[in-house]
Amino acid sequence: MICVMVISMQLPAVAQLNKEAALALIKRVVPQQAAAFTVESLPQKDVFEIESKQGKIILRGNNGVSVASALYYYLTEYGHCQITWNGSNLKLPVKLPVVPQKIKKATPYEYRYYLNYCTFNYSMSWWDWDRWQKEIDWMALHGINMPLALTGEEYTWYEVYKNMGFTDKDLEDFFCGPAYFGWFWMGNLDGWGGPLPLSWMKSHKTLQEKIVKQERALGMRPVLPAFTGHVPSAFKKKFPNAKLKATNWTNGFADTYILDSEDPLFAQIGKKFLQTQTRLFGTDHLYSADTFNENEPPSDDSAYLSQLSARIYEGMRQADTAAIWVMQGWLFYSDRKFWKAPQIEALLKAVPDDKMILLDLAAEIEPVWKRTEAFYGKPWIWNMLNNFGGNVNLFGRMDGVAAGPALALHDTASKRLSGIGLTMEAIEQNPVIYELTMQHTWQTEPVQLDEWLPKYIQNRYGTQNDSLLKAWQILRHTVYNGKLIRDGAESIITGRPTFDSTTKWTRTLLNYPPKELLPAWDLFIRSADIKTDGFTYDLVDITRQVMANYALPLQQKWIKAYKAKDSVAFRKTSTAFLTLIEDLDRLLATKKDFMLGPWLADARKWGTTPKEKALYERNARDLITLWGDAESPLHEYSNRQWNGLLNDFYKARWQQFFTLLNKSLVTNTAPDLNTFEKTISQWEWKWVNQQKVFPVTASGNPVSVSKEMYNKYHRLIESAYE
Q1: 660, 498 in Cβ contact below 8 A?
Q2: Which of 114, 129, 344, 592 has minimal CB crowding within 10 Å?
Q3: Helices H, strands E: what count in the chain?
Q4: Is 24 strand, coil or helix?
Q5: How many domains are there within the chain?
């Protein structure tokens, strides 16, 4: 018999169950049936109970997260419901199902972590309180008790530096635009997308107050930031004797400045920051700090790295003697050439074991714990990353995620594995993978997919359906097989126009033969009488994926025609390519999840003046296209297959390319591709700086449009793969 050891770090005592907050969550989630539930307190930590008694469903837990987890267990196991970002099914029977005998569940994971610095921008840049409240409820329902909470950090820094004598002018090129905070917070860039209006800082200070208040009311312990040395460029004028070093992220942005941890100012500023932040937002003594995120340290000397780490922790401790450093382990994954065993060990061992928690940020891709002796004895959290940049694709490691956390939990080599989490760069896609990961929260054994998938299907679609079960087995072994590639493939449609089959950030290599996805599409189309939101989302998403894949063989056709100098065939095949983009755009207009309009409208809502609205729209447009300026090497990193963006940006780009190629065929001259590259990047920059209203509500019927696309493209696609 395997014994699972859960190691506590003696965090400060968590507040007891706040019944008012728990009941309010129930009313938000199931308003019509809320009166059927009662809430009771349990003394045990990280345990929940469910029981039917005197006509009521009793939910017991020690805090709001445990109670919400009990509610979600009841909804999924007894009510056959589901709540995801991309479609929810809350169709409960009028008479709620009775729980025949008391259910009791405990979690082996003390920490259930959530979010990545990047999520705050690739998905959350423009969220208001209503959207945040829904996400906090989602967290609680899925057992999250340790969310990263970075909103409003720029206001904290504003107060700190103003109190140190910096003027607004000094700080103007420090604070970036709202779409880029993740990389500003990690010290990768300054100023880009700014200048940041003070109205934004104040509004998001207020928003953060609401976020952390709600999280704590439900029993969560928000992870707040700490100082890692990133300072304004004006620092060198204000403090000419300060020990500063310039560092560069190498992605087309100017240098940023890091204050050496040996400088006495380092500890002083670190203390000021935490004291100010605690006054503004309180503290649960958990602090996120990442040194050298995608930047190499100036030395690989173990003694240097050890001293650096010790000083960063000491800066936290001086402000908060109960401080615990929460470190993303991304640097050990992204720069393994630098971070070898001696360097990692030196960095980690300089901090007391009970004062640091490591996040194995992409454990489902490459478990860093296996090559670091489980982070040299530090408590650590198994996390799934899955999505990079918010790209739209069907992808995940279904079998790996079903087994990975439990296998690590039972492996004696995992030492102080203490948590599970989600650290995706963006959310609101591939809901099955996130539901699957959080299934581990209240169990110690691997998830048996042959048992879990039928439940997932019933909960999502409101019915048991053999055809859809077959479809999901196909999805499991194609898009969700987790083979060959790190993250989901994109479509060549979203790449800057090219003769190549892939570009730097539009990588089209699939982890399955595309023809093998077609039978799943067939089965979904045949089941199209199902009307749940989750089904229509999945139907559109699968239709989108099949059509997006088809762009590659279509590209090969017009390339072949062009090289053969067959202008008639070239016009025909290039027109078919553009028509595919138009059809995709119309398909995606049927679901709000796949629309550009809401993203831009939500950005503009935060503006208090026309100038601010324009700034935020430019931020929103830039992040998902060029990422930076016209010369940005990151263009397309955050590409999106979205209605509005497909026609207005991607199709318009390809049209210009095809015009160039058609002219070269007519004149029998070689196209100047180098000039085109420069011209198109300037056109992209012009697009980024435009203002235009796009629809914010869905149009068209997702089922009928999906069927239309199926009837139009199925035979064409099938023949293309023969």
Answers
A1: no
A2: 129
A3: 27, 17
A4: helix
A5: 3
Q: What is the pLDDT of residues 308-334, one digit of tens each?
A: 899 999 989 999 999 999 999 989 988
Beta strands 82-84 and 87-89, pairing class = antiparallel
Give start and end residues of each alpha helix (H) in 377-461: 398-409, 431-438, 449-461
Q: Are residues 686 and 713 in the same domain?
A: yes
Element (H, E) at 417: strand 417-422
Q: How many CB atoms lie within 10 A of CB 457?
A: 23
Nearest to 654 by CA among 499, 503, 493, 507: 493
41 lies in which domain range?
19-106
Under DSSP, is residue 139 helix (H, G, I), strand (E, B) or coil?
helix
Read off the pLDDT of residues 62-89 as tens digits, 9 standing for 90 and up.
999 999 999 999 999 999 999 999 999 9
Cα–Cα distance measured from residue 386 to residue 364, given in angstroms and rounded to the nearest whole number: 8
Last residue of a domain, one of 456, 486, 501: 456
Angle between helices 198-217 and 264-281 (to 10 degrees): 70
Q: Which two tokens stand for residue 653?
A: 């780009």
Residues found in the chain? 722
- Residue 25 φ then ψ, to 5°: -60, -45
Is the whole model's pTM more than 0.85, yes or no? yes
Nearest CA among 472, 443, 475, 444 for reference residue 458: 472
How many whole angstroms separate alpha carbon 293 and alpha carbon 184?
11
